[in-house]
Specification:
Blueprint lengths: L4 H11 L11 E6 L4 E5 L12 H11 L5 E7 L10 H8 L7 E6 L2 E7 H4 L6 H6 L8
Parallel strand pairs: 3-4
Antiparallel strand pairs: 1-2, 1-3, 4-5
Bound molecules: tetrahydrodeoxyuridine.
Tetrahydrodeoxyuridine (THU) binds next to helix 2.
């Protein structure tokens, strides 16, 4: 089966990574439900906590493109095994996903695993929980 073009997009994004401190380049590519595509890489900083993940960059590009629902997300890193999105990024992805959003976990040679978002982050918290909260608390 031929490789999804989103893999090459994520890999090209990883090659743009600015990661001189961790030396761990990461790339991310997103396809939205309308078919639009966006990508991002991790961008580190001498003040370490200010660095941003590849997924955050791709999501910011998607929002700037006027899109809000992720159908497929590809994440690529160079470690052995499955380089899955970090905990913070799982929550970032959650904001713009459905339970069926497909998460493609990649290494430099190709896709290593595919899972639904709900498999990656079961029982997750999202925007609809806030909508359900009604007027639980008085404003001061
Ligand atoms: N990183 C990502 O870009 N995405 C993840 O989901 C995991 C971690 C980046 C952050 C940092 O620049 C480097 O990988 C090492 O943690």
């Amino acid at each position: 089966m031929s490789q999804d073009p989103l893999f090459a997009m994520a890999k090209a994004a990883m090659e743009r990574s600015y990661s001189p401190y961790s030396k761990f380049p990461v790339g991310c590519a997103i396809r939205t439900t309308s078919g639009a595509t966006f990508c991002g890489c991790n961008v580190e900083n001498a003040s370490y906590p200010e660095g941003t993940c590849a997924e955050a960059g791709a999501i910011a590009a998607m929002v700037m493109g006027g899109e809000a629902t992720i159908q497929d997300i590809f994440v690529i890193g160079q470690a052995d095994g499955l380089v899955t999105p970090c905990g913070g990024c799982r929550q970032r992805i959650r904001e713009f996903s459905t339970p069926d959003t497909r998460v493609h976990v990649c290494g430099p040679e190709g896709v290593r695993g595919v899972m639904s978002f709900d498999e990656l982050l079961p029982h997750s918290f999202g925007p609809e929980h806030l909508a359900d909260s009604k007027d639980g608390q008085e404003t001061p």
